Amino acid sequence: MPYPMVNTLLDPMFPKGALNYWKSGFLPELSDEAIDVLVEAYGRVPSTMTGIFLDHIHGAATRVDSDATAFPHRQEAFSVLILGQWADRSDTDATISWVRETFELLQPHLSDARYTNFLAADDTGAARQGYGNNYKRLAKIKHTYDPDNLFHLNHNIEPAAS
Q1: Domains in the chain, start-ordered, CATH in brackets?
Q2: Is pLDDT of 161 > 80?
């Protein structure tokens, strides 16, 4: 399958005009307690467009050294994405509150790791969790190639002098 086509596979899940807010983290294990939190929370979703997604990180991804790439989270775990999605703007507060509350209830079961592609706009300062022990090395690289921090409109790695 051509790579550009792979990038379109999830498009139907994000219809044009839909509003989205999410939080995510990593569960080191899928414990009964974490499952209970997710099942109870899903019973209270404010919109039928909302979902909770679990991805099992295992296999080849765990056989790469954590410092071999920018992405350091190479231990077996479950990535959890709590996705609030809605169409009616009047549902904004309720849906965002549900996502935040669900994430907070799940917090005792989560590791300190975060997946940078799933960070919400208000997850300020979470880039360090996204890059773990690789953050300092990446900050030095950023200093070399983007010392003025031109590319800063994301979960930014601040340039750091060597």
Answers
A1: 17-123 (3.40.462.20)
A2: no
148: Cβ–Cβ under 8 A, 6 or more apart, which residues?
159
Q: What is the pLDDT of residues 70-89, one digit of tens each?
A: 889 999 999 999 999 999 99
Pick the closest to residue 19 from 124, 99, 129, 106 (CA basis): 99
AA identity, residue 30 = L
Q: Look up tokens 């190639």; give the residue.
A: 145
Q: Give the number of other CB atoms < 10 A from CB of residue 106.
A: 21
**pLDDT tens, position by position, 60-74:** 999 999 999 988 999
Cα 130 from Cα 110, distance rounded (Å): 13
| Distance (Å, whole) CA 127 – CA 147 | 18
- Asked whether 32 and 41 are in contact (CB, 8 A), the reply is no
Largest CA distance in the chain: 50
* pTM for the predicted model, two decimal places: 0.86
